[in-house]
């Protein structure tokens, strides 16, 4: 049996009922072969990083324990995205589901298909805050503390959603 590692997955959606998309994605991640879902963060709403003419994003993070190698895990993530109707219309644009392999154990990976840690992780409060919710002491493979990275992040208007708000977009408070 392959060695099991902790894999951190970032989830994001801003189309077709994002909260439902993320809930279904978490359920899908929990059924991956040779993988156990260990923790799920709260969901957070934030302004889009890219073009501002799109809806706010809902994001979260899950921590998996998996025996899948990182490229096979990536294949599974991309299949889940496709099952949710993922279409890449434009860079940093709207999407039904985005699944990013953020960290894979303490490994640094740089291949044509995969870069771990995820290249934008250190600048994204909507990734760092949910990670810190799961593990307040988490560090990147280069030993930078995620809490220090979060302190230096731009503010994307991050708003933690209450559990009662996870039933659908109609329950989200309106952003002014």
Describe the overall structure.
By secondary structure, the chain is of the alpha+beta class. The chain has a single domain, classed as 7,8-Dihydro-6-hydroxymethylpterin-pyrophosphokinase HPPK (Alpha-Beta Plaits), CATH 3.30.70.560. It is built from 4 helices and 8 strands. It has helices at residues 18-29, 70-83, 125-134, 146-151, and strands spanning 5-13, 35-40, 44-46, 57-66, 98-104, 109-110, 115-116, 159-160. The strands form 2 sheets. Strands 1, 2, 3, 4, 5 and 8 form a 6-stranded antiparallel sheet that branches. A two-stranded antiparallel ribbon has the order 6-7. The longest helix is centred in the middle third of the chain and has 14 residues, at 70-83. The radius of gyration is 15 Å and the shape is globular. Mean pLDDT is 89; it is low at 165-176.
How much β-strand is present in the residues? 15-25%
Return the string of H and E elements: EHEEEHEEEHHE
CATH architecture descriptor: 2-Layer Sandwich
What is the count of distinct domains?
Answer: 1
Regarding quaternary structure, what we see is single chain
Helix vs. strand class: alpha+beta
Produce a short descriptive summary:
This protein is an alpha+beta fold.
Keywords for this entry:
176 residues; alpha+beta; Alpha-Beta Plaits; two-stranded antiparallel ribbon; 24% helix; globular; disordered C terminus
